[in-house]
Amino acid sequence: MAFHPQTELDTPRAEINMIPLIDVMLVLLIIFIIAAPLLTHAVKIDLPVANSAVTDMKPETIQLGIKADGQFLWNGEFIEEVKLETLLREAGSRAPLPELHLQVDAATPYEFVARTMARASRAGLEKIGFVSKPEE
Length: 136
Known about the structure:
This protein is α/β, with parallel strands linked by helices. It has a domain at 61-130: Nucleotidyltransferase, domain 5. The chain contains three helices and five strands; from the N terminus they run H-E-E-E-H-E-H-E. The chain has a five-stranded mixed sheet with strand order 3-2-1-4-5. Helix 3 links the parallel strand 4 (99-104) and strand 5. Helix 2 packs parallel to helix 3 (110-123). The longest helix has 17 residues, at 19-35. The N and C termini lie far apart (112 Å).
């Protein structure tokens, strides 16, 4: 019976054994490769083809000018203040609602502008914008 001196082989090792980890990763990779095509649930349908053009309904724009002396211009034509009410109501009943672009003279009192905006709002016009000249 021979006695061997104690060597380093009997001490515990601090290394990680990579072989089982690699085996598990390869098995998982194969499972995912096989299972991935099964996860897509596509149903093939032959849809009919329509030859219609897309209709882009842009709202009409109405140019309403207010001069400093209180005169109104509807798309460039002078109108009376009485006729303005009927034109605004008629424009408010259209579909799609037109946009009202106010072109106001710089010397026009704010009272005329506020009264005109209130009339347009009561007539049903929701989009009101101001048109101005850029500074030079």
